[in-house]
Specification:
The chain is an alpha/beta fold and about 425 residues long. It has a domain of about 230 residues: Type I PLP-dependent aspartate aminotransferase-like (Major domain) (Aspartate Aminotransferase, domain 2), CATH 3.40.640.10. Helix content is about 45%, strand content about 15%. The strands form 5 sheets. A 7-stranded mixed sheet has the order 4-12-11-10-9-5-6, sandwiched between helices. The radius of gyration is 22 Å and the shape is globular. The chain starts with a helix and ends in a 10-residue tail after the last helix.
């Protein structure tokens, strides 16, 4: 019998999306990445149908002989990769990881200090997101625009004055490492704790090009697992504090999750092993590419921020496009040319400009994963200039983008799938 019309439509939309994003676009979203074919193969397994409430070997469901083994492997591998004692891999997102930690460290009515929203704090850190949902009051840390970072002296004074329950560092526009040690010393002096959200830079930490905040005095770190760390979508929490780890684990389940999407775990383990073998090479190339991309955009006439600081030390760079019509307009024009970016608030934007902010946030991690090097990002900068500055028809530039992207279709920094796996039911080919 023929397929129902609706089913045919679903399959066709999925097929078109896969080809578009994986083979025809230049993806510069700083919060995205792709798994390796091997990680994808282990993601599409029977585990996606199963439940495993609780901790490994202490489940509330039977049937977890092998999922328990995989989850314990993930904990061991991530602990080794990050050089920490305790890893909680069950949060299904970075936001859920934050929620569990915030709930342990604060109660409704308590106060927490966060990085300013316009300077990159993630929405989950704020009164508009998870922090607000938990009834914890947000107070913004002072920000030094000249250094594109937390103003340490003013922050220390504010910590001493407010005496918050906790301080949250980390950001979704994270160009330079936050001053973890200085903030942790001041925070601990008033009996408070430091949470450092490293969602954007987890892969750079694993690749040893970004400081691990746990080693610099943070009490606990949260993260997603799919940005510079090229794993499945999900979250983790890690710490060296045994008591905090145990308390947080009891909060993750049953307060914030029930089942924790078990098919993530084999893909997470594969990605951790890949990062143990290739992570340093990959992370070093990411930061080289980000710097080269920033310099190339600047040479093409764009106002790339933090030039006096070398633009960035992460995978991310920020461009002020007010003179080109604003973030919303430029992002849409680039999308029409198959260059995928996102509009972003800049420090001087009022919160109400969130739908049409001044900036673009660009990330190089996914295209680095597909093999782009410094010279390739110079070509990407030229393509962006054609659309945003020269006013070329995006549909015409789109043809150039598709042709250019043909050089970068194979995921690097990974192992090839063994032939026996290719003949096994474990391998599910992507719908193309």
């Amino acid at each position: 019998m023929s397929l129902p019309e609706e089913l045919t439509k679903v399959i066709e939309i999925t097929r078109v999306h896969n080809r578009w994003r994986r083979f025809e676009c230049i993806n510069l979203i700083a919060s995205e990445n792709v798994m390796s074919p091997l990680a994808e193969a282990t993601y599409f397994t029977d585990m996606m149908h199963r439940y495993a409430e609780g901790k490994p070997r202490k489940r509330f469901y039977q049937g977890n002989i092998y999922t328990d083994e995989i989850e314990l492997m993930v904990m061991e591998l991530m602990s080794k990769l990050l050089n920490v004692k305790y890893v909680e891999p069950r949060p299904i997102s970075g936001t859920i990881a934050n929620a569990a930690v915030f709930r342990v460290l604060g109660n409704p009515g308590d106060q927490a200090l966060i990085a300013p929203v316009q300077a990159g704090a993630h929405v989950s850190h704020t009164k508009f997101g998870t922090l607000g949902a938990l009834g914890i009051k947000q107070i913004e840390l002072p920000f030094d625009l000249d250094n594109w970072n937390i103003d340490v002296d003013k922050a220390v004074k504010l910590i001493e004055e407010i005496k918050p329950k906790f301080v949250t560092l980390g950001a979704s526009v994270y160009l330079f490492p936050h001053p973890t040690k200085e903030i942790a010393d001041a925070t601990h002096a008033v009996g408070a704790r430091v949470v450092h959200d490293v969602a954007h830079v987890l892969g750079l930490i694993a690749g040893k090009v970004w400081p691990n905040p746990i080693h610099d005095g943070a009490d606990v770190s949260t993260s997603s697992t799919h940005k510079t760390f090229p794993g499945p979508q999900g979250g983790i929490i890690f710490t060296n504090d045994e008591k905090m780890y145990k308390t947080i684990s009891k909060t993750v389940f049953p307060w914030f999750i029930s089942n924790h999407h078990l098919h993530r775990l084999p893909a997470m383990a594969v990605t951790a092993i890949e990062m143990l073998h290739f992570g340093e090479e990959y992370a070093q190339q990411v930061v080289r590419n980000a710097r080269a991309f920033a310099e190339a955009l600047a040479s093409e006439g764009f106002k790339v921020l933090a030039e006096h600081l070398g633009y960035t030390k992460s995978h991310t760079l920020v461009v002020d496009v007010r003179g080109l019509g604003g973030g919303a307009k430029v992002a849409k024009l680039l999308e029409d040319a198959n260059i995928i970016t996102n509009k972003n608030l800049l420090p001087w934007d009022p919160p109400e400009k969130v739908k049409d902010p001044s900036g673009l946030r660009l990330g190089v991690q996914e295209m680095t994963r597909f093999g782009m090097k410094e010279s390739d990002f110079k070509e990407v900068a030229k393509l962006i200039r054609k659309v945003a500055v020269d006013g070329r028809d995006p549909k015409e530039v789109k043809k150039e983008v598709i042709e250019f992207r043909k050089q970068f279709t194979e995921v690097k920094y990974t192992f090839k799938i063994p032939e026996e796996f290719e003949r096994s039911p474990i391998q599910v080919p992507m719908l193309l």
